[in-house]
Design brief:
14 helices, Lipocalin, about 25% strand, Beta-lactam-related, Beta-lactamase, globular, signal, 2 domains, single chain, AmpC-like, Beta-lactam/transpept-like, alpha+beta, eight-stranded antiparallel sheet, nine-stranded antiparallel sheet
Length: about 500
């Protein structure tokens, strides 16, 4: 009887702890912390949603949608989900698994035969699972969206020319192209676009009425602008191009809407009226699939987790003895992060409108502490110190690079001889022309533009036309006859044809 009473007491105490109400004072202090952190990191605007025990316990917008203008961010303001979209694409894949239309270990070639990789063995062995966990051996191919504008199927065709950067299934390099492949597979199985499918199968059931599969679907003005620090000044920059498929990172949402997605994915994919996934499929999504390296996120140097894994569309690590599932999203001038403490039934989502404003990490871990784990660690200060040092290290590296310039050299040939058309079956086309005493380089019909002064020898170096792209380097090589033979432009190798 005594043991029964003790069991009842412990059970009741645990339930009371789990259901402990968040006090108004606790909310007020967290609110003040978020605003102070936003200002500390110079973020023009952000929004945040926190859910616990299937309830929204905090949501708010901060700052402005566009720097220098009065319109405020609110919980309806639309921001880019960016790569946090990947978890939604995985959920769509999981629905097809539940319906018996594909399996995680099916060969990709069964659904997407045009996707051929450099190694024929890898082409044959590549599975749906591999598309989703960044372990294929293929390094980043973001040049296919950043340095050119080609159809997704053409991206797949060119993958055969991309040499692997590590052995198949023996490493981790983040890969967006393969998530585009996952979206294309969804389209072929369902018979609708990825955008239509995600609206129909996720947004509508969850009541996400202010969530768009792509920015091009947005029709009202309550959306943020992207911002970048250019020469120590915060400036509004252009939106990036909309994705053709969108499955790697195209969704836009608001704090109000994204809270519904957070609750659903914390509660084994349940929503009011049903569930998106079978319990075993939801479990598989959050089961570790591979490892990610410590340098994937600088934050790991401070967090010092005992383990770091990647599930299906989710990074994972331990924090204060608890499992964390999280994912970031980054587009030029825009950020997002989502994180879960499943054991505490706590989830958080932070949107920002300032390029790589890593206050997102600080607010996520602060929310974990504040609403579940306790403690007063000031993550904003610690991460600000960490990233400030990284920026200083970057400036030192730039100064070191600049110091290696060989002064008083001249190009090997007159500038006009560098001009012409250069091509590559992988990277496309580069047009080089003379602009005064500099070279103008146009890659893939204005996908990239730069006017570059001479640096040294046959190398030209300077800023991109879009300053937020950073600086570009063009290095020309001459053949044995002293004629310009090829151009290496920021690592992309082009052969001169005229």
């Amino acid at each position: 009887m005594r043991n029964l009473f003790l069991l009842f007491f412990v059970s009741t105490a645990f339930t009371a702890l789990a259901q402990k109400q968040i006090s108004p004072k606790q909310i007020q202090e967290f609110d003040a912390y978020v605003e102070a952190a936003r200002k500390q990191w110079d973020v023009p605007g952000l929004s945040i949603a926190v859910v616990k025990d299937n309830q929204v316990i905090f949501k708010k917008g901060y700052g402005v949608r566009e720097f220098g203008k009065p319109e405020r961010v609110d919980t309806q303001t639309l921001f880019a989900c960016a790569s946090t979209t990947k978890a939604m694409t995985v959920a769509l894949m999981g629905m097809l698994v539940d319906e018996g239309k594909l399996a995680w270990n099916d060969p990709v070639s069964k659904y997407l035969p045009e996707l051929q990789l450099y190694d024929p063995y890898v082409t044959r062995a590549l599975t749906i699972r591999d598309l989703l966990i960044h372990d294929t051996g293929v390094g980043s191919t973001d040049f296919m969206t950043g340095a050119m504008s080609i159809p997704v199927n053409e991206m797949f065709r060119r993958m055969v020319m991309v040499k692997p950067s590590y052995p198949f299934r023996a490493g981790f390099v983040y890969q967006n192209t393969f998530y585009s492949a996952a979206g294309r597979i969804i389209e072929r199985i369902v018979g609708k676009t990825w955008a239509e499918t995600i609206k129909e199968r996720i947004f509508t059931p969850l009541g996400m009425t202010r969530t768009a599969p792509k920015r091009g679907y947005i029709t009202d003005a309550n959306l943020t602008k992207p911002h970048y620090n250019i020469n120590d000044t915060i400036k509004v920059i252009e939106y990036g191009a909309d994705s053709e498929v969108g499955s790697a990172g195209a969704v836009w949402s608001s704090a109000d809407d994204i809270s519904k997605w957070i609750i659903c994915m914390l509660d084994s994919s349940k929503y009011n009226g049903g569930r998106l996934l079978k319990p075993e499929t939801w479990t598989e999504i959050f089961t570790p699939q591979t490892f990610f390296p410590e340098d994937e996120y600088p934050t790991m140097h401070l967090l010092k987790p005992n383990w770091r894994t990647y599930g299906l569309g989710w990074y994972q690590h331990d924090y204060r003895g608890k499992k964390v599932n999280f994912h970031t999203g980054s587009l030029a001038g825009l950020t997002a992060i989502t994180g879960q403490l499943p054991e505490a039934k706590l989830g958080v989502y932070i949107f920002g409108n300032y390029d790589h404003a890593e206050v997102r990490h600080a607010l996520m871990y602060k929310a974990f502490d504040w609403f579940a784990l306790g403690g007063n660690r000031d993550w904003s200060v610690e991460f600000k110190t960490l990233y400030s040092k990284l920026r200083e290290d970057g400036k030192k590296a730039q100064r070191s690079f600049d110091s290696k310039r060989v002064l008083n050299t001249s190009p090997s040939v007159p500038l006009v001889q560098y001009a012409g058309t250069y091509t590559s079956p992988l990277y496309g086309k580069a047009e080089v022309s003379v602009a005064g005493n500099q070279l103008s380089i146009n890659v893939n019909d204005n996908s990239l533009n730069a006017v570059l002064p001479h640096w040294h020898y046959d190398t030209f170096y300077g800023p991109y036309q879009k300053a937020w792209y950073g600086k570009a380097m063009a290095r020309f090589n001459l053949n044995t006859l002293g004629k310009v033979d090829n151009l290496v432009f920021d690592g992309m190798d082009f052969r001169k044809i005229n």
